[in-house]
Specification:
Largest sheet: 7 strands, parallel
Low-confidence stretches: 1-6, 80-84, 176-200
Helix content: 40-55%
Strand content: 5-15%
GO molecular function, one term: quercetin 3-O-glucosyltransferase activity
Shape: globular
Organism: Lactuca sativa
Number of strands: 15
InterPro entries: UDP_glucos_trans (IPR002213)
Bound molecules: uridine-5'-diphosphate-xylopyranose
Family: Belongs to the UDP-glycosyltransferase family.
Keywords: Transferase
Number of helices: 20
Length: 498
């Protein structure tokens, strides 16, 4: 960013950004804020009182808390340390009850900015804060959207009505035991839990789950089932529909992606979303995610990593929110043992349902960790992926993790849990071909075989070569004349003229 910092000396415009309070959403929003700051804009970050401990790392920004002025307001307090289903339900609640607080806060900011002769030119919010569009409209403030997922994922979400017309959601519902499907956002759960769901007696399946979906040929029919949506009346689908509608009503979309990665998806977005799209990512190439980390990364294993052979270590992390069932966890443990590869495993506290941390690990596995592995609660992920010893990344395919792996040319093993992750996993394995998708769950033999494919067997060279090419594409895209570079220049000009 150094070559663009010059504009900061004549700061006269302010941008207000509002992240969703989860790690995978905070990181890209704060990275975007830094990109704008170092290109001359003053920055205000609006945040909730939930997951906001990163603020001290950003003395250059002004922070304003909304929705938590009343200490008796339990809307946010209730959200902490709950499962993701509850957190996502929380997003719905906040979208429904926050309009007035945000309007008041923004109104005060607008008055102050006029007095200081530093106009607020734009509000940028996470796409899932769909309620912010009407607030911005009422204040005549342009609102742009940051979408933290892939373009592919948004295109699939936008196709839900078409997929429903074709009957795919009936299929999805018939595949799973209705008793196991809670109403609401808990529907977005792991394809790896699929084996827990039984086809009801006598149900005829119209589609073959392994077949491709003609409307979206990248997808298999089972990927639609894995979205765990019951059709357009499903609460998850309703949330997504509102997000898409208010994204279309915004002044533009900023994507943490780059054109060379998702060219056909970009064409489709341009056709379906009548607002400018700016693909300026990957954001972490400008500023590291670690600045907005909610957990303190451990570093004690770094000297161990330094002493490992090049590309010999499997890095394992399933992001900031996913949780694994006990029985699946044991399959992971056995799969790792069978694979015989060195590993660095990020295991957050409570990652395994019903356990504190590593308490469920058998003694023989703890011995194995001593011999050829490390387990940590949180790692400096970007640094680990960039390390010469890292040979593959076993990931849940959160979009940030996926991009971070692509940028370092590290092949992936894909074990998605929910939301956009199964879609990203399909894209990584079937379109980019830089990963093996463990699409049939957590069987130990399959796990060991996937690890060997990307790290040991001859095929690993093909994964590595494709991953290396993608890494090169990222670098070209970010250089002067590259798509991301040019798109960023357009975005800066666009915001300053809003
Ligand atoms: C969530 C969703 O899972 C994801 O699909 C969506 O696109 C964004 O929100 P999360 O599950 O946390 O995010 O995954 P991911 O998007 O990969 O973000 C995790 C971030 O935490 C990454 O930036 C990663 O570098 C960081 N991280 C993770 C660490 O810094 N250390 C770790 O040990 C693990």
């Amino acid at each position: 960013m150094e070559n663009q910092v010059g504009r900061s000396s004549c700061r006269r415009q302010r941008v207000v950004l509002f992240p969703l309070p989860f790690q995978g959403h905070i990181n890209p929003m704060l990275q975007l804020a830094n990109i704008l700051y170092f290109n001359g804009f003053s920055i205000t970050i609006i945040h909730t009182n939930f997951n906001s401990q990163y603020t001290s790392n950003y003395p250059q920004f002004t922070f304003r808390a909304v929705l938590d002025n009343d200490s008796k307001d339990n809307n946010l307090a209730k959200l902490s340390s709950k499962g993701i289903g509850d957190l996502l339900s929380g997003i719905m609640v906040l979208n429904q009850c926050s309009e007035e607080s945000l309007r008041q806060e923004l109104d005060q900011m607008l008055i102050a900015s006029k007095q200081q002769q530093e106009p607020i030119v734009c509000l940028i919010t996470d796409a899932l804060w769909y309620f912010t569009q009407s607030v911005a409209d009422s204040l005549k403030l342009p609102r742009m959207v940051l979408r933290t997922s892939s373009l592919f994922c948004v295109n699939v979400y936008a196709s839900i009505p078409v997929l429903e017309d074709q009957g795919y959601f009936n299929q999805a519902n018939s595949v799973f035991d209705e008793e196991n499907i809670d109403l609401g956002l808990k529907n977005i759960i792991s394809p790896n839990n699929e084996r827990d769901f039984k086809k009801p007696e006598g149900t005829e399946l119209v589609f073959d789950l392994e077949e491709r979906v003609p409307e979206i040929p990248v997808l298999k029919v089972k990927d639609i089932s894995n979205m765990r949506i019951k059709g357009q009346t499903d609460p998850t689908a309703k949330l997504l529909a509102k997000m898409l509608k208010q994204t279309k009503a915004s002044s533009g979309i900023i994507w943490n992606s780059f054109k060379e990665l998702e060219e056909p998806e970009f064409q489709k977005i341009c056709k379906d979303f009548p607002v400018p799209s700016f693909l300026i990512g990957p954001f972490h190439k400008y500023f590291p995610a670690s600045l907005s980390s909610l957990l303190e990364p451990e570093r004690s294993f770094m000297s161990w990593l330094d002493h490992q052979a090049p590309k010999s270590v499997l890095y394992i992390s399933f992001g900031s929110a996913a949780q694994l069932e006990k029985q699946d966890f044991m399959e992971v443990v056995h799969g790792l043992a069978i694979s015989k590869q060195p590993f660095l495993w990020v295991m957050r506290p409570a990652f395994v349902k019903g356990s504190e941390w590593i308490d469920l690990l058998p003694n023989w596995f703890l011995d194995l960790v001593g011999e050829r592995g490390h387990i940590v609660k949180w790692a400096p992920q970007q640094e680990v992926l960039a390390h010469q010893a890292t040979g593959a990344f076993w990931t849940h395919n959160g979009w940030n993790s996926t991009l971070e792996s692509i940028c370092e040319g590290v092949p992936m093993i894909c074990s998605p849990f929910w939301g956009d992750q199964p879609l990203d996993a399909r894209y990584v394995s079937d379109v980019l071909k830089v990963g093996v998708y463990l699409e049939n769950g957590w069987g130990k033999e399959e796990i060991a075989s996937a690890i060997r494919r990307v790290m040991v067997e001859e095929e690993r060279e093909e994964f590595r070569e494709r991953a290396r090419c993608l890494k090169e594409k990222v670098n070209v895209s970010l250089m002067k004349g590259g798509c991301s570079y040019e798109s960023l220049q357009s975005l800066l000009g666009y915001i300053s003229l809003l």
